Structure formats: C-alpha cells, structure tokens
Amino acid sequence: MTQGRRWILAARPQGLPARSDFRLQRFTVAEPATGEVAVRVAYHTVAPGVLPKLSGETYTAMVQIGDVIPGNGVGVIEASCHPDLRIGDRVAGELAWATHVVVRPESIQRLEPATFGADVPMESAVGTLGGAGLAAYFGLLRIGQAKPGQTVLVSSASGAVGSVVGQLARIRGCRVIGIAGSAHKCTDLVNSLGFDAAIDYKTHSDLAAAIRAQAPEGVDIYFDNVGGEISDAALLNMKLFGRVVVCGQTSEYQRVVPRGLLGMKQVITRRLTLQGFVVHDFAGEFEAARRELAGWMRAGLLLHRPTIVDGIEHAVDAFVKQFEAGGGGRPLVRVG
Amino acid sequence: MTQGRRWILAARPQGLPARSDFRLQRFTVAEPATGEVAVRVAYHTVAPGVLPKLSGETYTAMVQIGDVIPGNGVGVIEASCHPDLRIGDRVAGELAWATHVVVRPESIQRLEPATFGADVPMESAVGTLGGAGLAAYFGLLRIGQAKPGQTVLVSSASGAVGSVVGQLARIRGCRVIGIAGSAHKCTDLVNSLGFDAAIDYKTHSDLAAAIRAQAPEGVDIYFDNVGGEISDAALLNMKLFGRVVVCGQTSEYQRVVPRGLLGMKQVITRRLTLQGFVVHDFAGEFEAARRELAGWMRAGLLLHRPTIVDGIEHAVDAFVKQFEAGGGGRPLVRVG
C-alpha cells in the first residue's frame, strides 16, 4: 500500500488564511475504482482563488473540514481503471495539495508527449501552457485579433496572463506596453520579457497621460485584466475602431460597490469594441494552441518562469505568504 | 429679388432658452456664388442639440449674435451655381431656421427621386430616412447583427432612433422589447409601432426584474441609447455571447461626474460584445439604406410620424417647448 501526504482543512479561515487552518496528513493511497485513475502529483498550484471555498464564502465546491485542499497540478498516472489513460501518462488538471490523488478523467487532461519535452517541462501545463497562457493566447489573437504593427496595451502585465500576452504580442509583431504596480516589475517586463515599454501606475497621478507618452498615436488593442481607473485611462488612448479584450476585472472583485467603466462615451466617439470571454469557450482548440505555444517556448520566444517551492510541506506557507504584504509571484509547489 | 424670413440669434441663452433670445427677420435672398446653391426650405428641425452652439458652451460652430440659427432640413433648389445640382432638385442636410438659405453642396445631399415619392414624403429625409433612421438601420443590422428569432431590447424606445430600431427589429423577425419613460409612450410602442412589449422604467424599482419578466430566456441584442442604470439592468439580462450596440449615452450627457457602466463583470461572465458606432462611418451606404427603408415605408411596415408645426413663425416656440416639462416629441417645422 502506497503511503502519501496531503494537506487537509483543519479550520475555516476567518478573513485571511492562517497556517493553523491546515494540517499535513499521512494517508494510504486508495486503489482507483472503475473509471478512475491514481495520479502521483509532481507539481501543484496554491492559487489564492481557493480561499472562498475554504472559508465557506461560496456555496459551490465548498471544502469541508477534513477534506483535502483542491488545486490544479500536473502528475503521472500510477494506476488506471479507465480505458483512455495508461500508467505513465502525464496529465494536468484539477488535482490537490497532495502527493497522490485519485480522480475521474473528466477533471484532467492528458499531456501530449509531442508537445511537452526537454524545453517544455510538464509543469508549464499549469502556467504558460495552462489556463493563463491559453487565456492570453485566445484573448489576444482571437478576441483582440492582434495584427503585426499594432500597438497593444496590457494591464496587470506582470501577472500570469499579462506576461504571456506581452510576449505573444511581440511574437505577433506588435509594439507592446505593459502596466504594472512596481518599478521592479516594469524593469523586468522590458529587460526580460521584451516589452517595448512599461508604466508603473502607482507613480503616475495622470495615467492617461503616461500611456499617451508611450503611445502617442494611440492603442489598437487594450488587454484588460483589471478594469476600473486603469481601464478608463486606457480608453482615453484608444485609436478609432480599437478593440478592448475584457479578460479580468480584478480591481472590481474586492469592491462592495462596483466602480465600473466611466468612459462609455469613448466607446461611441472612438467606435470601440469591448469583448468579454472565458478561456473555456475555446476548450476544443486547447491542444492546438498548446502545440503552438510550446513551439515558441522551444524557440526561446516565450519564457516559462514559475516560482518553484520545493516540498509539499511548504505548500501552506507559500499559500499564506501571497496574502501578506509584498507577497510576490504565484508559486508552484514541487511535491518532490 | 426674393424676400425671405429667418430666425437670428438676438441674445445668448442663459441656461434654458427664452423666446426673447431669438428674432424673426425679413431678408433679401442672396444669389448663390460659384459652387453654391439657393434652397427654398420646406421643413426644418429645431433639435435641442443646437443649444450649446447658441449659448456659447461649445467652441465648434458657435453661432454669433445676429447669425441665422442652423438646423437640418429638406428643401428644393431654386438657383444653382454648382454643376451637380439643378433647379427643382430636392435636397436634405444642414440648412437653417429660414425660408431660404444659400449653402455649399458639401453640407447637403440630393434626394433620389426613386426613393422619395407619394408614400415616402421628402420630410422623412430628416426623420425615419435621416440620421436617426440610418443610425437605427446600421446599428441594429450591422453592429447588432440582428437575426430572425432573436430578442432585441431597446432603450429610449420612443425616441427618434429607438422607435425605428423597434420597427426594424420586427421587420427582421425579432421579438422586441422597448424601454420608455411613460405609460403613454409604452402603450404607443405596443399598439402603434408593433413592439412585443414595453417597460415604463419610471414605475419599476427593479428594472432588471421587469426586463426578466418580459425576456425570461434573455436578450440577444441590447440597443443602448441611454447608458447608466438602464444599461446595467439590461446587462443583467443578456444571453451568453449577446451584443450591445452602443449608440447613445444620453443619461451621461447631463452629469458632471460620469456614472458609467457598473456591470463590467457581466461582460466577462456572459461573454458580451459592446460596440460603439457613429452613423457617419456608413456614409458610403446611406443611399442604399434609404432605398431599403423607403421600401418598408411604402409597404406600411415602417411608420414616419413627425410632429408637424405649421409656419416658420412658430419655430422658436416649438424649440423652447422641448425644454419645458412634458415637452413631448421632436417637432418638425413646415416652413409653408
């Protein structure tokens, strides 16, 4: 009988999560039932988005006391009672903060061996080749319809989605300007990710003017991850017939009363198209998109730079730190 | 020498316009210079939108004291010094509150004899076949991409644009719901213009629920003339992948601080497309659109119902009344 370790919910977080809300538990890995597979987890995320499920603020997929904490991850199949998945297959999808997990195949996807290899590690399936990378891909290329020579502006440019948007815009032959929240992030966008310019919105009292200085002829595509004031500053710089890709509205999620978009008159006078999307709408094309993204990674045009935390015993620490001041990037736990 | 009458600006309106701000003047009609034409005005509008030009609140095309008041209209050419326009041609465009006006052809369009006739009076060129009708046509059919069987919601449905949008939606085979500001208007939309339903927004504390009651399966196309609270209520009723035609934001124009659109999260979760437009972008297709609209008028499918005011001497009275409580519809002055 294989022995594993997993994090379970010990107490519901009150407000911000505490380390004492979690407990690392040893357990005996169950055999998969018919239709199920057993996965040895290689990497798992500790995304902040799981918090409402732990604190009981959401009714959908709420985690009960004693339950294992859910999280996306990648792993290898160790036992299979499903005809389409074999021992040794690498998979990505909804796994858990655990060394081993038994799941149904609906919640995971098999990783194509041709896509993942030496230059495209399997853990990129929950990063640049995962939901964030796919949102950047379909958002910029399908919803935004980016064309060579266009000027692309992206908010939350250092984030998981934004950093890929900027790199894809460069690959597509666009000029790209990022908006981020620190001088350090802005330097990284330009020096490491190839952005043409980056604007630290925290140091500009007139963000619209700061954008204008970097895009005096206007913006063709604004990739919107945040909404609010930053989006209104972007609208004031759009070219006629420009496109706004509405991918996220993170500035709204914490508000009790939404602020929204004030500049609706710009939508008329500048003949703008604003389009929202959810990456899952493109699920049928994920494999083809991953192949193209993997090709760019192999060619060195698209960087995958996860913050790796080594050892499942550090998962909760990595989770909690994201809610603290200066929490930094999104960690990926190497179960090891 | 032909004698005419025209309204000139006697004093700048302070806030709302007063009858004493205008003076009806007799004048001798000038001969057109090379490239100009003299037009005998048959009908002219007294649109409220001219007020900022009179009160000096706008720097573009400001009317000076002693100047004739500008306004769209239709008329017949009485003298021409332009090779493309002949005596007897009917024209529509930027004329004036006057019996006669000398203009350059750039500001007017010749009315095709094949389009206008017994069932399609020339004055419809500044109504159903004018800017408002064309905005409804291109907004609903091009920007909205209306298809048979869809549900269309239109705000300011009794207005010049909205009333045509509703009728075109019915012609296109859509179900159409209007939002208007009085019980009388709502009755008229359903009984005279063929709307499937109409909602008086002033009598509903929960407008989103009122829309839901009329469109329980959701709205495919929202034709937005007003913005603000009404648009947010509409967003809460959009179907997945619905389209919002952003034609006007009248609720914003009077505000010092814009309110904007609060429900940007709906744009993502419902995968909405919001698109702004200006009718002039379609100028190259106006003639073809007018022919199609005229065909529907002849077939009795599209009503042209201007509020006619007889006699140029009543123009100022008709203008001022629109700013008073219960001002009613948009009048058209028959110069007579």
Can you characterise this structure?
Two copies of one chain form a homodimer. Chain A is an alpha/beta fold and 336 residues long. The first copy, chain A, contains ten helices and 15 strands. Chain A has helices spanning 51-55, 131-143, 160-171, 183-191, 207-214, 228-235, 250-253, 264-269, 286-298, 315-321; strands at 3-9, 22-28, 37-45, 70-80, 90-96, 100-103, 108-110, 151-155, 175-180, 197-200, 219-224, 238-246, 273-276, 307-310, 331-334. In chain A, strands 3, 4, 5, 6, 7, 14 and 15 form a seven-stranded mixed beta sheet that branches. A six-stranded parallel beta sheet of chain A has the order 10-9-8-11-12-13, with helices on both faces. In chain A, strands 1-2 form a two-stranded antiparallel ribbon. In chain A, strand 11, helix 6 and strand 12 (238-246) form a beta-alpha-beta unit. In chain A, helix 2 packs across helix 3 (160-171), helix 2 (131-143) crosses helix 9 and helix 5 packs across helix 6. The longest helix of chain A is centred in the middle third of the chain and has 13 residues, at 131-143. The two termini of chain A are 19 Å apart. At the A-B interface, helix 8 and strand 13 of A face helix 8 and strand 13 of B. Strand 13 (273-276) of chain A pairs antiparallel with strand 13 of chain B.
Total DSSP E strands of chain A: 15
DSSP helical segment count of chain A: 10
Radius of gyration of chain A: 21 Å
Report the span from N to C terminus of chain A: 19 Å
What structural category characterises the helix and strand content of chain A? alpha/beta
Q: Provide the low-confidence segments of chain A as ranges.
A: none
- Give the largest interface pair and sizes: A-B, 29 and 29 residues
Sheet of most strands of chain A: 7 strands, mixed
What is the helix/strand order of chain A?
EEEHEEEEHEHEHEHEHEHHEHEHE
What is the mean pLDDT of chain A? Answer: 93
The backbone outline of chain A, from C-alpha atoms, is globular
Beta-strand content bin of chain A:
25-35%
Overall helicity of chain A:
25-40%
Tell me the quaternary state: homodimer
